Amino acid sequence: MAVPALKMDQQVDDDRDFFPTAVSDKVLVEARRKQAICRLFGSSSIFLSSECRRGDRSDLINVITNKAIEHYENGEEAMAESQFSKAVTCFAKAINLQPKQTQLYVSQAEAYLQLCDFQSAAVSYRHACLLEPQAKTLHTRLAFIYYLQGQCLYDKGMFLDALESFAKAAELKPSCRSYHMRSLACLTALGRYTDCLRLVSNWLEADSQTADLFTLRARLHKQLNQVKMCYHDLRSALALSPSCPEAGALLDQLEEASERARQQAVSRALAGELTEALTKINMALEHCPETGQHYLFRGILYRRLKDFTAAIEDLVLAVELSEAGDEGDQGSELSGHTQEDWRAVQEEAQVQLVLTYNDFAVQCFSRSFYKEAVMLLNKAIEEQKEESGLYINRGDCFFKQDEWEFALADYQQAEEITPDDQFIWIRLAVIHNTLGTNFYQDRKYQEAADKFSEAINYNPGVSRYYENRAKAHSKLPNVEGAKQDAISTLVLDPTNDQVVPLLLSLFPGCSVSEVLSSETARTVKAQLMDSIQACKQSASSVLRMCSGLDKITLSHDADSQSDCQSSEDQFDQGAEPPKACVAPQDVYQQIVSISQQVKRAVRLALEWRQPLQYDGPHLAPARPVEQEQSALGSKNRPYHWRKFGGFGVNSK
Known about the structure:
InterPro entries: TPR-like_helical_dom_sf, TPR_rpt. By secondary structure, the chain is mainly α.
């Protein structure tokens, strides 16, 4: 079996000797197989052996790498020769071969940048940033490219596109203030001042506050007609940097506008146009909202317009601002006013505050809100304890609430301040008469007589007081005092028929004419006239000598050159007393009205009295209300002295 094999090998060797290029059948079979694969799959190496594939890949990578390096070097040479378009092409070819190389994108972006193609440069840098997210230098360069792009767009007037580019730059580099400022410039060019204001406010909240930022925001506030906020920002800027020229100049403009508006308000007020004056002074306060003088003037206007709540708020604020200015804080120094000016404003505001409390109380009194009126008068008295009119008004409020003792205390306090005020005497007489009436009803006749005597001392010309005391004396009994008081009653009021029965009982067997013509009556009449005349002379002399002492003085010294003695003071100059809850003429009218009620009651009683000889029922038939009112001539009920409660109080 071995021999044939040897023969076969020998035959192959012989064939090689004759055909040197001959290949073996094994090689031919492998060649035919590869040829078939190529026909089916082209140049694919998937069916090749792994050894072949590794060798081919390594060679291919080397070729690609070398080619990318070649393109990169060509691009660098083109950059050196300022052939930027060629450089862009070379770097693009290199990127196609090596897409994960950061430097290739950076070089391409720089080439685009030289061509002023900012959009393409930004795209290249974004690819680089994606490959190396932690590289801060790449982000910084990209932000700068967006900044350059935005600046070019801004110069072309494309503000919206420029704003987008600056916003991207600021987002990549938030610590760079110049990018934010360029965004602010675009917003300003677009007229979006509200967005500008929001941006600057965010800076002030997040970063350190500077005078420049406050001044910038003040300008934005002024552009948006937010003058008050502009003023506050300027004050903040000057507080940080008193020598800031921009803030100082803008603040001067606001103060000048405020002064012009104040002068216009004064002119309107002097012309009686209070509503227009209020509009102008509001404008002045918008420009300078920390000026106490303006709040003082507006408070006076509100008081004249009877808006007392707003007046009190403004006047209190004027006092507070003047007190702060008087202490010499930094704000007052910036405003340019001296401490004397602030003190003058404070004094004037306190005077006006007292008058406002009083006027508000008078309004409450007229609407029967007596407790509220007392509270307001309490505040006024706390501010001004030497004004008798305030005590009079509070006494009137207490009187309306039947608080007799409190009313008496206030009237007496007013008398201590102005001892010879006739109007206080009238009130004291009324309150003493009222207290005497109450004592009489409680059968305390001696106390009643004493109170009636006090009433007569203060106002000796009222017949009702003598009549009341005569009745009290008759109960004690004090016959002589009752006789004199009954005679005085008829001397002052000859038509008083109620005291006639008492007089006839005190002088039995005598008629009224005989009593009045007696020596005793002449003596009583002379004494009565003397006391009335003395009272009138005392009151008139006091009114001539002290006509202005019971009033709150609103004017300042004529030699004062402070700002407080300006045109708005002229609007409210002169002595102005606090308004009275019950005017003096009303007091006299009430007294006359009560006297008329007395006469009507007497006449009605005489007309409807029962005859002495009467056989019918002893109970009188009830009269209709309409008949009784027509008999009285008014809708008021018949007067009865026991039910009298004083001036201004209706009988019930």
